[in-house]
Write a structure and sequence with these properties.
Chain A: This is DUF4302 domain-containing protein. The complex is a heterodimer of chains A (447) and B (286). Chain A is built from six helices and 24 strands. Chain A is α+β, with helices and mostly antiparallel strands and 447 residues long. Chain B has eleven helices and six strands. In chain B, the strands form two sheets. In chain B, strands 1-2-6-5 form a four-stranded mixed sheet, covered by helices on one side. Classes of the chains: A alpha+beta (447), B alpha/beta (286).
């Protein structure tokens, strides 16, 4: 082809391009009938209208991270001028406070609590419940991304970690009842008079399973591990308080049903979640350890000398296996001693050359020997300690300042003895002694 | 036809294409964005009158995720705490510099934005970040919720932050004599400064432990600490130093700070210190 022809074709092509451009044909499929900006503006006003629409505001149980922490109930009432009134069950202060909020555009439309209020307590770097959350507070957020509405609820996701938060319409009663969550908190922790052992029992309609249940009040988090041999299963759940019980997240799944709402029974201190078709889950107390061991046998006659010690100024004092009643009674001993005197150890000796005895030592006064007989209860897997004498004198009465404490160890129904699997810093084995009729449990090192 | 003719036709076609195409384009209408300004509160008006208009400094106290580190667990200040905090900054920092450096000094060299954060910025090693200065433009002040105006130690710690950050901003405008500074206590700088007690660092010639992180922090700490000490307190501080080399180092650093203020900004550093002391007392007593 000649150069001239090439130029001709190029011109022709160029002309065609020119003439066919600026075609106003916009047949491309329109997914939306509004521009992105318009849609965002619509979303913004939709969210603001929804927030303002509920007469008594909104309620949200905020589980900031249900793998380590529980839920914190918040009540919000939004007003036209950008103010919000808020109350929460984060701590004892359930009063209503006022602050500001805004609908902001970030990665999407979001609700932001722009000045400090109760919800920010979850996001305070130097207020954290456990060392693992140091500098992270309670992992909370207060910028919630808007994800629409469903069944009258507003769905948000936390900007920080994408946790879902659902705003449910609040009632006038919700505002009145909020302080009751604190009562529930105490019920979940359990009073000093409640039995020591707790379990989660699930029923899928035909089979029952039992799980050892422990609850950490600082994190509002519970763990339940199966106690049945050959059935290894655990539940971990964050706990949120309601006026009548608890809400858990993630749900306890039983027989394919997800149970989240547990109702409190004040008579026996239990919490029950009921599904359909006989499915249920119950958190309840028991007087008996879930698993009975033969650990008591090393204390019986004919065995080697065994000694156990509890020391108030050492790591045995911090053991979580000591019960509240034990601490109370320990305090009572010191309170009834003269100034300058206090208890410094409680030691238990079995099959010693001097016999079987509890050895109490003190700061500022001489030690006491409480000689006992050891009786085995092989069916109940317990030992019973029977009083013989104080310092070898069979007629002298129990010293008044020790009487309350000592009577738990002398429980006529016996003591459960357990070799624990954990250590308290040192390599010594840890043993606990628990009264079988009251929530008294002491933690010792095997000496 | 000759090539020339084609050219003519082509040019004609081009011209007509340009002039007729896209003629039906819609004219822009109003913005689709909602640009209505939020209603200003009494606090917003106070900030406008005391910071924005006189100094061209914007104060952000409402949460804005773009001005804070989202990986930290922080929260915005309580509204009632904002004005007291700003009044402290205004009296002790802005007024002191205005008196000594001239009315326009801070207007010319100032952070253009102050961000207030209510909570503590705790680091994973256990230290607290009290303030940040970014690019000479923005100063972030933490812990504004915990300010107690009647407690001198508390006010001093808060004002320490802004004095410290402002020294950084001054340094970002005109550098100090880094070469001479580096030569004074070259061995004392360390990344794990927080593992040392302050008296221990004092005996090495550093005014605080944080000063040991690097020479920039050392300069800012030295200047800021002298500014928040009263004349008598600083003299007592020096009198307590046991090591002669440490004392000499501290004095050499002080001299460099004084020289920097004179050379770079023609300011009498000691006069500035006295003014700050006077204003601190007036804040605590009122």
């Amino acid at each position: 082809m000649k150069v001239k022809n090439i130029i001709k074709y190029v011109f022709a092509a160029f002309l065609m391009l020119q003439l066919s451009s600026c075609n106003s044909n916009t047949d491309a499929e329109q997914l939306f009938d509004k521009t992105p900006t318009e849609r965002l503006e619509v979303q913004k006003s939709e969210l603001n209208d929804a927030l303002l629409a509920s007469e008594f505001g909104w309620k949200a149980v905020y589980f900031t991270d249900n793998t380590v922490l529980g839920g914190y109930t918040h009540l919000f009432r939004f007003t036209e001028n950008g103010n919000v009134e808020m109350a929460s069950d984060f701590d004892d202060d359930t009063a209503v406070y006022k602050s500001e909020y805004a609908i902001q555009l970030g990665s999407t439309v979001s609700l932001v609590f722009t000045t400090k209020n109760r919800i920010h307590l979850l996001s305070e770097s130097d207020n954290y419940p456990i060392p693992a959350l140091r500098a992270k507070g309670y992992l909370g957020d207060f910028q919630f991304l808007y994800y629409g509405q469903e069944n009258g609820q507003i769905i948000f996701k936390a900007n920080r970690n994408n946790t879902e938060i659902r705003f449910v319409k609040a009632t006038a009663q919700d505002w009145i009842d909020l302080p009751k969550n604190l009562v529930t908190e105490q019920n979940v922790i359990g009073g000093d008079s409640r039995p020591l052992f707790r379990l989660l029992e699930t029923n899928d309609g035909t089979t029952k399973h039992q799980f050892d249940f422990t609850f950490s009040p600082v994190t509002r988090f519970a763990e339940a591990n199966s106690i049945e041999t050959g059935f290894s299963f655990s539940y971990e759940m964050g706990v949120g308080y309601t006026p009548t019980g608890i809400i858990v997240s993630p749900a306890v799944e039983v027989g394919g049903q997800k149970l989240t709402d547990f109702v409190y029974n004040s008579t026996d201190g239990s919490f029950t979640a009921t599904g359909t078709g006989g499915v249920s889950a119950v958190i309840k107390y028991t007087d008996k350890p879930l698993v009975l061991t033969d650990d008591y046998k090393i204390l019986l006659a004919g065995q080697a000398t065994a000694a156990f010690g509890f020391y108030p100024d050492d790591y045995t004092m911090d053991a979580t296996t000591n019960s509240a009643l034990f601490y109370t009674e320990l305090e009572r001993i010191n309170a009834s001693l003269p100034a300058g005197q206090e208890i410094s150890s409680v030691q238990l000796y079995f099959n010693h050359s001097l016999g079987n005895f509890i050895y109490y030592t003190f700061v500022g006064r001489s030690a006491l020997f409480h000689y006992v007989d050891v009786v085995a209860d092989n069916t109940g897997k317990k030992i019973i300690l029977k009083h013989k004498s104080w310092n070898g004198n069979t007629t002298v009465a129990t010293p008044a300042f020790l009487a309350n404490f000592d009577k738990y160890l002398m429980d006529p129904n016996g003591l459960y003895v357990k070799k624990e699997s954990f250590r308290l810093v040192y390599t010594n084995t840890v043993y606990t002694f628990a009264s079988s009729t009251s929530p008294f449990r002491i933690t010792t090192w095997k000496l | 036809m000759k090539l020339l003719k084609y050219n003519k036709i082509a040019v004609l076609a081009l011209v007509s294409a340009f002039s007729f195409s896209c003629a039906h384009e819609d004219q822009p209408t109003d913005s689709q964005l909602d640009f209505t300004q939020p209603t200003k509160t009494a606090l917003d008006n106070w900030i406008d009158a005391n910071y924005f208009s006189p100094y061209n400094i914007n104060v952000q106290y409402k949460w804005n995720q773009n001005t804070v580190d989202n990986s930290r667990f922080l929260f915005p200040p309580t509204v009632e705490k904002v004005q007291p905090a700003l009044e402290i900054v205004q009296t002790i920092w802005l007024k002191s510099y205005a008196t000594i450096g001239g009315a326009d000094f801070v207007k010319k060299i100032a952070p253009r934005e102050i961000v207030l954060v209510g909570g503590v910025n705790l680091n994973s090693v256990g230290t607290r970040t009290l303030g940040l200065a970014e690019g000479g433009q923005r100063v972030t002040l933490f812990e504004t919720d915990y300010i107690n105006k009647s407690n001198r130690a508390n006010v001093t710690e808060f004002i320490h932050t802004i004095q410290h950050e402002y020294i950084h901003i001054l340094n970002q405008h005109k550098p100090f004599d880094e070469k001479s500074w580096k030569a004074i206590t070259p061995a004392g700088y360390t990344a794990d400064w927080y593992n040392y007690d302050i008296p221990e660092s004092n005996e090495l010639g550093f005014i605080t432990s944080y000063a040991r992180s690097n020479i920039n922090e050392d300069f800012a700490e030295t200047a800021a600490m002298i500014l928040i000490y009263s004349k008598a307190e600083y003299a007592a501080f020096l009198a307590n130093i046991k090591s002669a080399t440490a004392l000499a180092a501290l004095k050499a650093k002080e001299a460099l700070v004084v020289k920097y203020f004179k050379d770079a900004y023609d300011m009498d550093f000691y006069a500035l210190r006295d003014e700050a002391e006077k204003n601190t007392t007036s804040v605590v007593n009122n």
